[in-house]
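Sorry, explain these tokens?

___
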Amino acid sequence: MNGKVNHIENQEVKEGIAKKTRAQYRREEKTDRKKTKPNIKIVGAPMSDAEIERRKQELLGSLTSKTWRDLETQGKFKKDEKLSFVDDDTLIIGCDVGSEKHYIRAIDTRGRELGKNAFGFSNDKDGFEKARDWAADIAARHKKAQIIMGLEPTGHYWLDLATWMVDNGISVVQVNPYAVKQTKEVEDNSQAKNDEKDPKIIANLVKDGNFGMPYLPEGVYADLRRLSMFRDQLNEDHTRTLNRLHRELKIYFPEYKDAFGKIDGAFTLALLEVAPFPDSLIALGEDGIHEIWHERRLKGRGYSKAAGIVRYAKESVGTKDGAEASRDKVAWFAKQLQGLSEKLAEVEGQLEEKFREVPHAENALEIPGIGDNILSGIIAEMGDVARFDEAKEIQKLSGLGLVACSSGKHKGETKISHRGRKRLRYWLFQGAKSVVVHDKHFKKLHEYYTTRNDNPLKKMQSLIVIACKLLRVIYTMLKKGVHYDPEKMMQDIIRPSDGLDIAVAA
């Protein structure tokens, strides 16, 4: 019995020694790692505060910014050129843009973070100066010669920041917001997205050459862009107000379309401001309606509609309740429509005057079906053609570039990307529809694409192909100053075997 007890005690002692040995081993291993950990050596002697300030002031005086004119007008700015542009002497700043406050973080070309935390600054001159001072201080401490700021274009909030930084010697580049979204989990394997994480992701994208140069329109192109945006906003407001007017009239005067005809015409709007509903129209009578039009000095065949308006008003089955309250609303809508129409005509006149200042813009008007309205919209959204090396770049910018997802034996459907400036895509499509109707050569192409024996296209697909062809024609005319040559245009895509002849019947 005693032998058995002694055996158990000896076994417990051995297990205790083994456990103690493993614990000691872990502690010793941790101590060894600390002892063998290499020390990080700072190149050169530590700099004093005075030396850092001196380098900082020298850096601020020598900063030079690069824009798209410097980098994209000397041939294609490819991935290799982008990587060379961000060299070892460059401090990379990633910026997360906000409406009121921005956040930045700094890294080097190895991806090592040089600042302790994200730096936040306000969206004004004082904030911009603090951000530049913060970046210059880090650059001076790490002996960097230039500074590049990367940002994702968020609405219009980045415009003032980018302009100020470029004017003060800091190059500004853009990263695709979609790329930021797709790579955010690479940073910390988390779906989290915040103002302090995004700047680091943006800076790393810049480090790897995944950026582009921002284009800020200048001169006449800036005027065209703003006028074109204003025209689009006026058109949206006009459509919205007109739809609201339709709704009110359908409730209280459902026969209004037969009575008035064109609802946004001058005669109808003048009448709707004073007497929009059946009871007031009946009270006015034909003479009263004529008098309203006379006071507005309207001329034309609209006077003949007065009798019909009164007749439809007498037979109307519109709702009576609430008509008095809705009367002022309809009058206001009518007045708004008149003002919007007048302003829209004024803006379109300014657009027509401005786009003719663009070199060789008059040549593009030689294309049948391309008028001032369409061409001004295309040029306003496209900008200066000098920044493009070929028309395919503009095609990609407009979202008309072809994409397909294929793998192995699977071949995906080919379609347009829809990524880019949707207004440019809109105006190119409007131009394609117009030239197919008015230009016999483009019409011939449209017929060929939709009826050819090999892979005939649907009408919508054909119009997209025509839009891309129209883009190439306009690009060549603006870039080289040549005139419209339909025969040469047809030669580029001739398919004799499929029946597309150069000659087009007059």
